[in-house]
Amino acid sequence: MLSYIQHLFAEVGLWTALGVTLVAGLMRGFAGFGSAMLMAPIFAILFGSAEMVVTVVAIELVVSLQLFPQVRAHADWKTLAPMSIAACLAMPLGVWALASVDKGTIVTAVSAVIVAFVVMMWSGWRYRGRRSAAIGATVGAVSGAMMATTSVGGPPVLLYLLSGNDPPAVNRANIVTYYFLTQFLLIVIVLATGVAGWDALARAIVLFPVMIAGAYAGGKLFHGVGSERLYRNVALAILFATGLFGLLRNFLVS
Fold first, then answer.
1. Rg for the chain, CA atoms, rounded
2. Which of 173, 167, 154 lies closest to 70 in space, CA to CA?
3. Are 56 and 41 in contact (CB under 8 A)?
4. Measured distance CA(15)–CA(46) in Å, rounded
5. How far apart are CA 219 and CA 94, in angstroms?
6. Burial label, 117 (beta-carbon count in 10 A; 0-12, 13-18, 19+)
7. What superkingdom heads the lineage (predicted)?
8. Can you tell me the distance from the alpha carbon of 161 to that of 170, in angstroms, rounded to the nearest whole number?
9. Cβ atoms of residues 177 and 87 within 8 Å
10. Do 8 and 206 meet the contact criterion of CB atoms below 8 Å apart?
């Protein structure tokens, strides 16, 4: 079993992946977001872009499965339905891009998305336009294609859902439910098309307990200590550094 795990990660990749997953779990525990965005660019470098998508999305899917029963009563299905359907319909296009585009381009793209998302969050920018089924479907389609190509489909959905005046319980429920409705299908599509192998899923099984441990520790260590804004800014700073590394990695390692 140990030799199989070493095969899954390779020597340096194992410890790096464990460390990144632990930090991602801590972020999930104290800030509530950002775990996928932290793991995606680094896992793409370690394991390849297609393997990264399955590993990251599988880890996030288990978290969604845990949270969905707690939040489903608060979900706004009128908003979620067109968004989720459009996301699922756009996923094959994203998988095609995942299979066609080289790893370096994927890492650069996901890193750019992360940096742009952090800058918008820091600036306080919010979507001010109206919300409708057509706009929600457009957001979902962009998110679905991004999720399939980079595993990071959250930014457009987060920025759109958080633009309204919904209470925090509804926002949380909508975000969790959206991922619950879309992540399983993405894993099925990527594995069924042969773009990524089953090793990527096995890797997620190995890493998931580390994610849970990190999330538990993050919640215990940081809950009720300091301000929510501080935790959010720490998480955003970590994401910004990760995204910047992905963008500048060719210069940093040369």
1. 17
2. 173
3. no
4. 11
5. 34
6. buried
7. Bacteria
8. 10
9. no
10. yes
CB 224 within 8 A of CB 75: no
Q: How many CB atoms lie within 10 A of CB 225?
A: 9
Residue 121's nearest CA partner among 37, 26, 6, 46 is 37
Answer whether 238's CB lies under 8 Å from 121's CB.
no
Contact, 158 vs 178, CB < 8 A? no
- Whole-model pTM: value is 0.83
Give the pLDDT confidence of 116-162 residue by residue, as tens digits. 988 988 888 877 777 889 999 999 999 999 999 888 888 888 888 87
Q: How far apart are CA 183 and CA 68, in angstroms?
A: 13
Can you tell me which residue has the tokens 């650069």?
108
Residue 77: what residue type?
Answer: W
